[in-house]
Amino acid sequence: MDAPATLSAASLRAAPRLPRDFFNRDARTVARELLGKLLVRREGRNLLAGRVVECEAYLGAEDPAAHAFAGRTERNAVLFGPPGHAYVYFIYGNHYCTNVSCMPPGNAGCVLLRALEPVLGVRTMAEARHVPIVAAPTLAQRRLISSGPGRLSQALGITRPRDNGKDLTGIGSDLWFADDSYSVAQVRTTPRIGVAKAADRPLRFIITGNPFVSGTRVL
DNA sequence: TTATAGATTGCCT
DNA sequence: GGCAATCTATAAT
Description:
By secondary structure, the chain is α+β, with helices and mostly antiparallel strands. The protein is built from seven helices and eight strands, in the order H-H-H-E-E-E-E-E-H-H-H-H-E-E-E. The chain has helices spanning 9-14, 20-23, 27-34, 122-129, 139-146, 149-155, 160-163; strands at residues 38-43, 46-58, 86-91, 95-101, 110-120, 175-178, 187-190, 204-207. Strands 1, 2, 3, 4, 5, 6, 7 and 8 form an eight-stranded antiparallel beta sheet that branches. The two termini are 17 Å apart. It binds a DNA duplex through residues 56, 58, 65-67, 70, 73, 75, 89-95, 97, 99, 112, 114, 148-151, 192-196.
């Protein structure tokens, strides 16, 4: 039912990176297929990784909730560039949110990453989040690491100065998506979280039943 | 130049 | 469940 709790660094290195064509499609398609993939960060010789369990699609000119809705600005310029690049923005004075651009240049779709299940480098991610390091963390404690868009960005050290505009499909990139052939049993869609406009559109995608999805009640 | 809302989080009651 | 924190982009003077 749940994804594997851990993953070896060797198998992660063997997992193919998602190519640019993967992102050169409608944001809804990319969001759905991104579920179950791994977001990987290389910190020197150390690898950090989390499995995507929740994300949201943002469209272009036809989506009032999207940053690209009002057109190209210095802030959102990445969205209008080629697919497979990181769009990182700062929000509420405290948090970075991580997106990946979709669609060909000129089309501004993107996918916001909202929750990861930590699978490799968990201790390092917990330290980055200032989450207590304990021998046998509870589910509630593990959820604090990367369940939420601001949380997962902090866990992987993703910031706008460091990562905005980065090519996530580049060979030399220190941030990328990997496919370890994990199979997602069922995908559920819901309205997007925290948006006032176009609040009725089912553009949030989650792995049904995964406990690391944000807002999940922990018993 | 000033005001306000925001793709959030964490602490308080 | 309520709400303050804290900064940026954008709208309103």
